[in-house]
């Protein structure tokens, strides 16, 4: 530099660019999809887009994952075993141990961060579920939200499940969206695909060369099962033959396609207590009709995913980029049995994971035609989950193959060309931690040893790019531990040691079963007694891996998973929400009411005789409550997991008013509600079961019932029904917890143990 421009030579920092012709990368991750649920892996649902990708690409027949969603996502996006990242289970717990930290550490680079720093644009849409539920609110520091973990843009739902017609909290980038109503015909899978396509189009409008990484994480096909009417109609009658016949036909296709070796045995129906499935032919005609409808809805969701994948690939084709795009399609874990033996039309009353009284109803009698629509939150009977996982045993949550073996299709026309005679099926063992190192190698990006000025955690996964290029190449991933809720397994060179752990049972060697997957890929013959030396060797290997990866402590009967960070005590303080406050996030809302008595005080500055609308609402069609004014009368609606109770609390005179809704927690996990007007009781509801677990799914709204309504009849009359009068505030005053609050029970167990010692 001289004293003037004329005496100086300019210089510019070179832009970060990956290698020439670096491919785009698209990862499509489906939620709870079983091994056989797409055409390339045996399904009868016609998926033209996936069929085309598989026909020109590759199928990994022995790809394995974690048996639950958050751990699988953490492993996929980091290349590390999930306990090391802090995801021993779903991101809805916080018991205070490293394996349950539910945060990606600062020394763990994600796939998005690595590609971003190499010059890629990075986008994510759909389900995140790597942010702890207590950190999903707008006041959080967001350090574990998508944009802080390497993505340029994000659109979707931070938590693990949602309504596909009325998602409970949409987030764009770093901000929850405050939406009263969604447009008619709205469907979440279509929406996130629209957003993904828009991100890609916008990138190409601004930069014709920059490659991108797009992470499309579907909430489908996780429960509650919901599909568009036209998609359901295409599946009518397809499943009238039942799950037994479906397993046989899917298995035959798998053998014919070379996914499984000749001589593989299709296991008998799952028979383990609590996971068992009965014969389809022994169901009544009414049961068969209803159960078939559940599967029609599920298949419609799969079909819709393929349709939306087609819209995305057509966009890439129109841009001339489909050939140079790596597309991965897979599932986070296997198909689920959480719908129970009969299925449910009341998803959240089945999905409570808490001891419940004898009169608890895990199903609500709804018209079969409503199954799959916005008024029902349903899940299929576990017989269909068994069929989804054909030919493997058990389900999501277990470390048997049904929980961990899922479909995997990869396509890259420009870079993964098959030679003559290559069927495209790969039989080598691969694991979810291998995805990040493989995609980095295909993109020509090196994982650094230092990350953010500190040593990066070493990866556990290994690239399977050599296997993709040459079907004869051996897998570099030869052994792997797994653990989920006490279920354990260890794989080494074709041997698999595995348990089906019963909660509260001791962790001892008597739980182990041993299978030789080289001759018994469907885990039908336990040979542990024949090979005690192998059991001992692999059990010791599992123990060593568990200590190295932060698996301990294992869950037991102490109630430790009910523990929460003491800092959350502030969530139980009284809270005043002024008129115009955006919707309170789901978890934050639940802390005000869950397992306790509570009071809600509504202050009206000026109510006119003509004013009407919702004063406060909390929840949706899966369960919730709403206090509203209609035709001059004060009314209370309580949605008991799909069963609606209405209470008329009498006229609401004009003027300045104080309205109180008082909920008393009584025995039997019930609430008793009283409505008071200016201190005088004017209405009382019958005793109703409390909303626990994931219910209410939607948070608290003041002066409106946003998106999914508590009362469908009110929604049909008034939509979101915003209050027209002068609403000043709504105050929640949490009362004492009930004696059956799991946190109190866990504390009592700890104190009793300490006293005993």
Mean pLDDT: 96
- Strand order in the sheet with the most strands: 7-6-5-4-8-1-9-10-2-11
Helical content class: 10-25%
Oligomer: single chain
End-to-end distance = 76 Å
Any idea what the shape is? globular
Low-confidence runs: none
C-alpha-based Rg, rounded = 27 Å
How big a fraction of the residues is strand?
A: 15-25%
Structural class call reads alpha+beta
Number of helical segments? 17
* Extended strand count: 30
Main sheet: strands, sense, barrel: 10 strands, mixed
What does this molecule look like?
- Helix content is 23%, strand content 22%.
- It has 757 residues and is an alpha+beta fold.
- The chain has a ten-stranded mixed β-sheet, sandwiched between helices.
- β13 and β14 form a beta hairpin.
- The model has no long low-confidence stretch (mean pLDDT 96).
Secondary-structure blueprint of this entry?
Layout: E1 24-30, H1 48-56, E2 58-60, E3 63-64, H2 69-78, H3 82-85, H4 111-117, E4 121-127, E5 153-157, E6 171-172, E7 175-176, H5 188-206, E8 212-217, H6 229-233, H7 242-256, H8 285-318, E9 325-331, H9 347-350, H10 382-388, H11 401-404, E10 408-411, E11 425-426, E12 430-431, H12 435-443, E13 450-451, E14 454-455, H13 465-469, E15 479-484, E16 487-492, E17 495-498, E18 513-516, H14 532-549, E19 575-578, H15 586-590, E20 596-607, E21 613-620, E22 623-630, E23 633-640, E24 643-651, E25 655-666, E26 670-677, E27 680-684, E28 688-689, E29 700-702, H16 712-718, E30 726-737, H17 742-756
Parallel strand pairs: 1-8, 1-9, 2-11, 3-12, 4-5, 4-8
Antiparallel strand pairs: 2-10, 5-6, 6-7, 9-10, 13-14, 15-16, 16-17, 17-18, 19-30, 20-25, 20-30, 21-22, 21-29, 22-23, 23-24, 25-26, 26-27, 26-28
């Amino acid at each position: 530099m001289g004293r003037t421009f004329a005496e100086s030579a300019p210089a510019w920092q070179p832009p970060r660019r990956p290698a020439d012709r670096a491919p785009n990368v698209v990862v499509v991750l489906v939620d709870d999809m079983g091994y056989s649920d797409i055409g390339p892996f045996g399904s009868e649902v016609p998926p033209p887009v996936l069929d085309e990708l598989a026909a020109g690409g590759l199928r990994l027949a022995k790809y394995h994952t974690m048996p639950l969603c958050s751990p699988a996502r953490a492993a996929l996006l980091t290349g590390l075993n999930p306990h090391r990242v802090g995801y021993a289970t779903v991101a809805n717990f916080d018991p205070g141990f490293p394996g349950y930290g539910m945060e990606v550490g600062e020394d763990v680079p994600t796939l998005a961060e690595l590609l971003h720093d190499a010059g890629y644009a990075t986008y994510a849409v759909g389900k995140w579920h790597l942010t702890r539920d207590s950190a999903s609110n707008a006041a959080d520091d967001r350090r574990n939200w998508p944009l802080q973990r390497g993505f340029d843009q994000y659109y979707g739902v931070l938590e693990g499940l949602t309504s596909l017609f009325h998602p409970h909290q949409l987030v764009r980038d770093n901000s929850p969206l405050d939406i009263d109503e969604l447009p008619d015909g709205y469907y979440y899978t279509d929406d996130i695909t629209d957003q993904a396509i828009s991100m890609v189009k916008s990138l190409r409008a601004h930069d014709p060369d920059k490659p991108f990484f797009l992470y499309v994480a579907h909430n489908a096909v996780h429960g509650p099962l919901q599909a568009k009417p036209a998609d359901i109609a295409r599946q009518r009658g397809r499943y009238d033959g039942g799950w037994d016949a479906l397993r046989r036909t899917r298995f035959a296709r798998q053998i014919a396609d070379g996914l499984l070796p000749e001589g593989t045995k299709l296991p008998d129906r799952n028979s383990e207590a609590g996971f068992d499935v009965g014969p389809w032919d022994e169901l009544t005609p009414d049961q068969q009709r209803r159960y078939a409808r559940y599967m029609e809805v599920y298949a419609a969701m799969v079909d819709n995913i393929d349709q939306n994948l087609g819209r995305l690939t057509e966009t890439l084709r129109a841009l001339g980029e489909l050939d140079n795009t790596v597309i991965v399609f897979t599932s986070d874990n296997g198909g689920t049995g959480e719908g129970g033996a009969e299925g449910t039309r009341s998803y959240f009353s089945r999905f409570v994971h808490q001891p419940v009284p004898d009169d608890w109803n895990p199903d609500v009698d709804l018209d079969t035609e409503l199954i799959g629509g916005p008024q029902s939150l349903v899940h299929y009977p576990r017989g269909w989950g068994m069929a989804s996982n054909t030919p493997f045993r058990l389900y999501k949550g277990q470390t048997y193959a049904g929980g961990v073996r899922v479909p995997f299709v990869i396509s890259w026309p420009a870079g993964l060309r098959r030679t003559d005679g290559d069927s495209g099926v790969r039989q080598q063992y691969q694991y979810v931690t291998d995805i990040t190192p493989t995609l980095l190698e295909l993109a020509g990006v090196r994982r650094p040893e230092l990350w953010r000025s500190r040593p990066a955690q070493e990866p556990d996964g290994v690239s399977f790019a050599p296997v993709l290029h040459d079907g004869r190449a051996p897998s570099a991933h030869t052994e792997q531990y797994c653990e989920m809720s006490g279920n354990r397994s260890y794989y080494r060179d074709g041997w698999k040691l595995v348990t089906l752990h019963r909660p509260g049972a001791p962790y001892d060697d008597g739980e182990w079963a041993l299978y030789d997957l080289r001759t018994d890929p469907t885990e039908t013959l336990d040979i542990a007694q024949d090979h005690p030396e192998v059991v001992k060797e692999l059990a010791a290997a599992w123990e060593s891996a568990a200590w190295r990866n932060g698996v301990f402590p294992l869950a037991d009967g102490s109630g430790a998973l009910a523990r929460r960070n003491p800092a959350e005590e502030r969530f139980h303080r009284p809270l005043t929400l002024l008129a115009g406050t955006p919707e309170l996030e789901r978890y934050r809302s639940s802390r005000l009411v869950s397992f306790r008595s509570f009071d809600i005080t509504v202050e009206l500055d000026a109510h006119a005789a003509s004013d009407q609308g919702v004063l406060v609402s909390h929840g949706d069609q899966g369960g919730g409550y709403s206090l509203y004014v209609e035709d001059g009368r004060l009314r209370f609606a309580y949605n008991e997991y799909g069963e609606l109770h209405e209470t008329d609390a009498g006229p609401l005179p004009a003027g300045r008013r104080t309205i109180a809704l008082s909920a008393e927690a009584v025995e039997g996990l019930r609430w008793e509600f009283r409505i008071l007007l200016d201190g005088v009781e004017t209405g009382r509801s019958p005793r109703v079961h409390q909303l626990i677990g994931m219910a209410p799914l939607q948070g608290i709204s003041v002066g409106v019932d946003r998106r999914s309504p508590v009362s469908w009849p009110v929604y049909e009359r008034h939509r979101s029904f915003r209050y027209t009068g002068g609403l000043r505030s709504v105050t929640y005053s949490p009362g004492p917890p009930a004696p059956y609050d799991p946190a109190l029970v866990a504390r009592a167990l700890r104190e009793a143990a300490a006293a005993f010692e």
